[in-house]
Model the fold of this input.
Amino acid sequence: VQLQASGGGLVQAGGSLRLSCVASGRIGSTYVLAWFRQAPGKERDFGACIRRNNGVTYYADAVKGRFTISRDSAENTVYLQMNSLKPEDTAVYYCATGSMILSSLRDYRAYTYWGQGTLVTVSS
Done:
């Protein structure tokens, strides 16, 4: 499985960006597609994820109400629409996928495949 993320960039606070992640290879129907982010000097944090088989979504409290995760009909591309961006959203954003139990959805260690990351910078 390979993941290719894109869509990062520089945006002013209050602005929006849309990240995309194209997945290729054998992706199981029970896989979860997720976005994590890592700010300089900090750990990789969960952002949002979507279950491939039923489309159920989960969000970190820090992004709930501002970010929306979705997937296309072929279920091979996952998007992260980011609105009302804040300087603290500045980070490298990674897409990831894998199969896991529900209690591990927010744990980056549960994900097997990772994209290369795309940098999001929010200026104040």
